[in-house]
Amino acid sequence: MLELLSPVGDFECxxxxxxxxxxxxxxxxxxxxxxxxxxxxxxxxxxxAIQYAKxxxxxxxxxxxxxxxxxxxxxxxxxxxxxxxxxxxxxIVQDLGFALKLMQLFPxxxxxxxxxxxxxxxxxxLELEKLGFKRVVLAREFSMDEINYICxxxxxxxxxxxxxxxxISYSGQCLFSSMLGGRSGNRGKCAQPCRLPYxxxxxxxxxxxxxxLSTRDLCALDYIPSFLEAGVKCLKIEGRMKSPxxxxxxxxxxxxxxxLALSKEPYIVDPVDRKALLQVFNRGMSSCGxxxxxxxxxxxxxxxxxxxGLFLGIVQKYNKTxxxxxxxxxxxxxxxxxxxxxxxxxxxxxxxxxxNNKNITETKIRSNxxxxxxxxxxxxR
Length: 381
Fold this sequence. Notes:
alpha/beta; TIM Barrel; 2 domains; globular
């Protein structure tokens, strides 16, 4: 069995993940979470969320995965105690001292070592196993060969990220945000300076520019059989600050392919599913992250630091007087869709669509297999 663990930022996301096949979910309370700017849950909502998932057979993981100051220790313990009484299934922890105290106070509560712990070799995994951790969330910098090696040489549960945002730094070790603005990623308040534009200088001469530290998102659909063969216990989707549509789509598609990998059917990823993942959110059309043996020279996408969606087509004409843009499309669009133009900031919401000066609600494009073609011109405003 390969567990699918999905992200939850609010109650709508919780419903989206549960209803689309998640085996387990992870979320934060309104303190001590590595995603402090997600909606998260107050104590009342935390109880409601745990009950909602538990009734539907979905396990819950609470993220108490920031470094904790001495004067915060008791408050963090009180939060963990409350979650335990509500029926939480596991707590994900970064702070080692806090983790050991939780094991002492709640010996039947599984404690998971967060990716923020920077467990990046077998020795680190074995040490957490010896200390009593139930599971280790491996650093995202592992190759598939390294993941396989660790799984074959330890008895602890191994969890790996399979989809979502990557950090340019080693998991749990980035001080960039705290050095620039006093907002520490290890305290859940990363300002994401790696998503800002930079210039690369050599002898005071600019040789490159753009979003030079912004990594493409991870998409590991093709590697699910390898995770399964290695013995990975759980695949994790990143995205506690993403929309319900994102978590629903990612959960549905990864669950589909976990089930396919567990079956005896040929493992073939449908291009339609790849496109659905890209459309709901992607940076740089995604990549395999660090899963291959060789360094990923395609890891950074310097042109754009946020969601780029799908390539829709080419702008052929713009009527400034009427506010009409004429497009030759490669993808279907409809009224209400949001699009953006290359080299422009902001976006447009389609309020009117026309072909041959006649209003339509959506475009129709002729398909040849999975390659969409269109020879017609559409106008929108």
